[in-house]
Amino acid sequence: MAFGLPNISFVGYPVPIPCAGHAGLGLREVLRSDVPEIIEHLRALDAEDRRMRFCASVNDGHVVRHAEELLERSSFALAAHDGPLWSGPFHRPGPIRALAEFSVHGLAAEIGISVDKSLRRRGVATYLIQTSARLLQQRGVKRIVAYTMAENRSFLTLARKAGAEIVRDASEVEVFFDVDTLNRTYLQRRVSDQVFHRVA
User: Fold this and answer.
1) Is 133:76 a contact under the CB 8 Å cutoff?
2) Are residues 179 and 76 in contact, defined by beta-carbon separation less than 8 angstroms?
3) Most CB atoms within 10 A, among 116, 128, 130, 170?
4) CA angle, corner 192, sides to 143 and 152, nearest 5?
5) How far is CA 64 from the centre of its chain?
């Protein structure tokens, strides 16, 4: 099932995001067939962005192995595609511009998130997390946990705005999101988005 609006350049509602002329960003769950696009997205991250994403310096080989094993674990992932969400007779899905990955363990899910530099500070990561919470709640997940670096200011700002609990320990930080809270925010945002488009 697709989430978002694949033919309109809006994701961080109501902030417009310039995308490829043929379409816009749309969100959907990751499939096995998306692995090449996931690899391409993660390999495009520079060294510092990879360190923020993985809390370690990783090379291309690690990125490829991570992507190939992603769906073999108890995992769930949501991707923001720039362009078509699905393959068709004459096209493939658009490239992945942002990715939220979750490793689910009972009532908790650990998150890893990455966003292309060109789309940062536009609400994409927030909307990915909120939408993911909606889906994770249906799976019985109560809490989303993130491990990040103390200097990952953009993610920590996102966490504070989302009402997450932040626990600092030397150079690493643990972040705890409440899924019910995120889901309520997701629903409020969807309603606001529908009103926005009716007015527009």
Assistant:
1) no
2) no
3) 128
4) 45
5) 18
What is d(CA 35, CA 110) in angstroms, rounded to the nearest whole number? 20
Q: What residue ranges define each of the domains in the chain, with the CATH number in brackets?
A: 2-199 (3.40.630.30)
**Quick check: 173 and 166 in contact, CB under 8 A?**
yes
At how many degrees (to 10) do helices 124-137 and 179-199 cross?
120
Per-residue pLDDT of 101-128, as tens digits, reads 999 999 999 999 999 998 888 888 998 9
Ordered alpha helix ranges (H), the chain: 35-43, 47-54, 60-69, 124-137, 153-161, 179-199
C-alpha pair distances (Å), 21 with each of 27, 116, 129, 141: 17, 18, 26, 37
Query: Could you tell me the pTM of the whole model?
Result: 0.82
Burial class (CB in 10 A: 0-12, 13-18, 19+), 90: exposed
pLDDT tens digits for range 140-169: 999 999 999 999 999 999 999 999 999 998
| Contact of 97 with 81, CB cutoff 8 Å | yes
Q: Which residues pair with 113 in a beta bridge?
A: 100
Q: List residues bridging with 165 in a β-sheet.
A: 176
> How many Cβ atoms sit within 10 Å of the Cβ of residue 30?
21
Contacting residues for 188 by C-beta, under 8 A, at least 6 apart: none
